[in-house]
UniProtKB/TrEMBL annotation:
Record flagged with keyword Cell inner membrane: no
Gene3D superfamilies (UniProt xref): MetI-like
Keywords on record: Cell membrane, Membrane, Transmembrane, Transmembrane helix, Transport
Positions of the ABC transmembrane type-1 domain: 76-265
Membrane protein topology class: Multi-pass membrane protein
Highest taxon above the source species: Bacteria
The protein's name in its UniProt record: ABC transporter permease
Organism: Metallumcola ferriviriculae
Amino acid sequence: MKKLFKRKTAVVGLLITVAVILMAIFAPYVAPHDPEKVELALRLKPPFWLENGSLNYPLGTDSLGRDVLSRIIFGSQKSILVSFLATVISCVLGVILGLISGYYGGTLDTVITRLGDIQLAFPLILLSIAVIAVLGASTLNLIIVFGIANWVVYARVARGAVLSVKEKEYVEGSRAAGCSDSRIIIYHIFPNICAPIIVIATLSLAGIIISESSLSFLGLGVPPPKPTWGGMLSEGRQYLYDGWWVATFPGLAIMLTVLGVNLFGDGLRDAYDPKLSTEKIE
């Protein structure tokens, strides 16, 4: 952690990520307006620094007179909820399968590896579109789809780490002392592979945010009128000339959030990498 906090970019990324999470949690108290309230008289009102803008609507309004800032704030809830829960599901599923595959090997290892290869043959976004088209668009379905679709990378990393750890002396000593397989995996192997798993989970979080926004942009995400960043981009694309702010600010929110998560993830990766010396820390 000392190495992590010595990296300025990692600290900036952590601050951005924490700010977005807090914004999502306290959205009802932070947002100045109801994000779903329609006010046609205020349609396409510009941001406050432009002519006819107002501080009441600092980032302007959309085509239905809804406050853009409030919709961005509430939209963060869906992005954070979907990405976090999907990451947890894929991490738990992938790590369990990877531990089993790497520790026991044999036919079980072959079956799990081949399943991963088959899933990797399908692009994530196309697989998500196909499943959502069948199951229907909802927050729960998005979480399930992204959770199941991302387990392979965790399984592969966990499997590789287990293969390098299970022959260590302390594992052989535990086995000779009569410890069960489950105890060896949980208490002796898993703690030693946590570092790469944490880094991958952090970095994949950003990818899921983009994927969720992409599906919402295509109309396969959370159904309207619930605000989502991708849905706001889709609604605002036809007003790029008359109301550029409708699509611009949600896009900036996505970019800033993904940037923050990636910077923090890169910092974690560098801090956990023993090959990097303290002299290289920025």
